[in-house]
Amino acid sequence: DISPPRRSKSPETGSCYSIGSQEAEKKYESLLNNLSHPPAFTTVRVNTYLASVEHIRGLLCEEIHKQYASLSVPVLQHPQLPDILLIPVIGPRKDLQKLANEAIVGAQCGSAVLRGAHVYAPGIVSASKFMRAGDLVSVYSDIEGKCKRGAKEFLGTKVFIGNGISELSRSEIFNSNGPLKGLGIKMIEPIYLSPSFDNLLPSYLFLQNLPSAVVSYVLNPQPGERILDMCAAPGGKTTHLATLMHDEGEVIALDKIADKVKKIKQNASSLKLNCIKTFCYDGTKALEISKRADGQEGPPFVPESFDRILLDAPCSGMGQRPNMAFSWSLKEVTSYQPLQRRLFSVVLGHRAITTTTTTTTTGLEETFWAIESNPLLPLCPKEPHIGGEGMIGAGLSPEQLKQLQRFDPSEAVLQPMDLNSLQSVKHEDLIRLANKDCIGFFIAKFIKV
Hints:
Elements: E1 7-9, E2 16-18, H1 22-35, E3 41-46, H2 53-67, E4 76-77, E5 84-88, E6 102-106, H3 107-114, E7 119-120, E8 124-127, E9 136-142, E10 159-166, H4 170-174, E11 183-190, E12 205-207, H5 210-219, E13 226-229, H6 236-244, E14 250-255, H7 258-270, E15 276-280, E16 308-312, H8 330-334, H9 337-347, E17 352-357, H10 362-373, H11 398-402, E18 405-407, H12 419-424, H13 427-436, E19 441-447
Parallel strand pairs: 6-9, 13-14, 13-16, 14-15, 16-17
Antiparallel strand pairs: 1-2, 3-5, 3-12, 4-5, 6-8, 7-11, 9-10, 10-11, 17-19, 18-19
Helix pairs in contact: 5-6
């Protein structure tokens, strides 16, 4: 799959040789290259509980027109995911001039900039000696995490991500006594042009990767049902499920970290959704075989408590894009399997189950394990089927592989996007590109017999 091709030393010569095939090597290199770029489209979900897609699309077009200085960029509605809007990402731009004034940001901050964000003050690691508020500055991402905070110059590995205007001076950033807050650099020439959604229609729009939106449609929740989202933070899928249910019924959202549960509540409140109930609880302990106390509302739950369950179990996150800092080891990638299986075992006491994981081999292996361990839990077809089928491996039959959905960044052909080329591309080709050039993801759906 996409795990690093294994290498070993020849006992005769001491030189390295590859255990995997040349095809696997090429696929892995293609993956790393594609992961370092943002997806070809910014994907945003309309809160259809509060407004129509047509109305919000019109408001969004007006805002993008302002942000892009009257440039005409289409906003497309996905034909199979009707509440999803797609905005082409323009770039990489080759005509930007690098400036003498430099600011270095952390890799996570750099990835956010590549997807349309401005630079917030806590993300700035280093700045030129005489940088003042109002200065034009070139922004670089420290992809190896080696820049020392407060450095006046950095000669290590850095990636140019665009130009902006500094909102703070160097001394304000690094000599501040209290915690840094607020905007640090306003990006005016990002290398990838993507709209900023800072405080943009917050009750009506929610940024969400395309495969994540597919998951909620695959689960197909109905108004009035009781749904469990087992590892719910930050709440994108939770709120999508509630929206598809027209805020009728109950969506139980679990996460074992209190700050993450707070984020789910904030997102539900922002989107004006009332059917979501959140609990800070370890999902591996969410099943109670014995009788519950009368009136107990939260976890643990007795078997058959839910109509449908969504399990997006913790995973390596290898498929996230952009990601210019690759630090995974094979041990780390495979370390999530025991936890994923414990979580999956909890949901076996209920009816419809949709599971998702990253784009590594663990998705196939966990699917095979689930089928082998539970004969009454067959794979079932998923609609809409937007991703590709599963890759051969892990003992699954060709028919079973067709019932999986796999979004693989290595299969996308990276191509620069500019305004001129956009005008000549057919609508259906843009949709096809959006379906392929996205984050890595894996979806399997089971229905308990």
